Automatic annotation (TrEMBL):
InterPro entries named among the record's database cross-references: Golgi_SNAP_su1
Name of this chain's protein: Golgi SNAP receptor complex member 1
GO annotations of cellular component type: cis-Golgi network; Golgi medial cisterna; Golgi membrane; SNARE complex
Organism encoding this protein: Phaseolus vulgaris
Compartment list: Golgi apparatus membrane
Length: 120
């Protein structure tokens, strides 16, 4: 017979991973759109058509805030996954999966920083 606490930890882990993957997918889409929007700007900060980026600038900032919010959620989920993994004991596959989710979070954070520096 299996330990009920272990089953709850596994369920918690899987739910957290599912939520992490969903947010990672959302971030991937948002960051892609963010990069495309940034690509429409010239060195002077104007949209390629030559018109001031009033609406685009607001869109850029709004999208940046949405991405930042998703990154914060993903960070919270990664923290929860760390606690869940620690309570489950040492398991190589769990550790590797957790490390991969942390790498993804780091990569997305770097992409946002690069985009923010481009817009600054």
């Amino acid at each position: 017979m299996r330990d009920p606490n272990l089953e709850l930890q596994e369920l918690g882990w899987e739910e957290l991973r599912k939520e992490a993957r969903k947010i990672e997918g959302d971030l991937d889409v948002k960051l892609s759109s963010y990069a495309k929007l940034g690509g429409r700007f010239t060195q002077t900060g104007h949209v390629d058509s030559g018109s001031p980026p009033l609406g685009s600038s607001r869109s850029w900032k709004s999208m940046e805030m949405e991405i930042q919010s998703l990154l914060e959620k993903l960070l919270d989920i990664n923290d929860s996954m760390s606690r869940c993994a620690a309570s489950a004991g040492p398991a190589t596959s769990v550790t590797q999966k957790l490390a991969r989710h942390r790498d993804i979070l780091h990569d997305f954070t770097q992409v946002l920083r690069i985009g923010a520096n481009f817009n600054a």
